[in-house]
Amino acid sequence: MSDTALHPETLKEVVAAALGDLARSVTLALGEVTVVVKPANYLKAMQTLRDAPDCRFNLLSDLCGVDYSTYGDGQWEGERFAVVSHLLSLELNQRVRVKVFCEDDGLPMVASVNDLWASANWFEREAFDLYGIVFEGHEDLRRILTDYGFIGHPFRKDFPITGHVEMRYDEEQRRVVYQPVTIEPREIIPRVIREDNYGGGLH
Question: pLDDT tens digits, residue range 159-169?
Fold first, then answer.
């Protein structure tokens, strides 16, 4: 591993040069470089980031789904679902974040990068399970955290906190049974406590 990482501004320029027109934007904020790509360019952009001599992001350290439907108190006007990846170059000691928005909110879909990084396998299955994002080309895209018969995707913002069904062990049937959830949905409003001497009176 390189002892000295590139300055973030230099890394931004290196990544932008390597991707060229494949990137929709390359930005720098809080010392971190973020790349946004279109779904059509996603797979090629990811391969470029892995293979380009000045990039060599040979480790996919994280990949997750995001639901922007309530972002900014509902003021968000872009696509609802995105996939966010974090790449690391072990050789060059540098990191980059890649974001791709799914074009169809009804059927969010992007290409799988499982053939580029084996670590994408479970990450993509998790994003499929929790957000309903389909990774085209993934050879084993099935639920990984929820039950086999689970309906819906629990990390979507419109999924009820209580869920749709609950399970319990039935003594008479001597098996686990599923039934409609019996918890009444309610608004949870945080209580703000204001005390003059809270925290020892330090301000």
Answer: 888 777 777 88
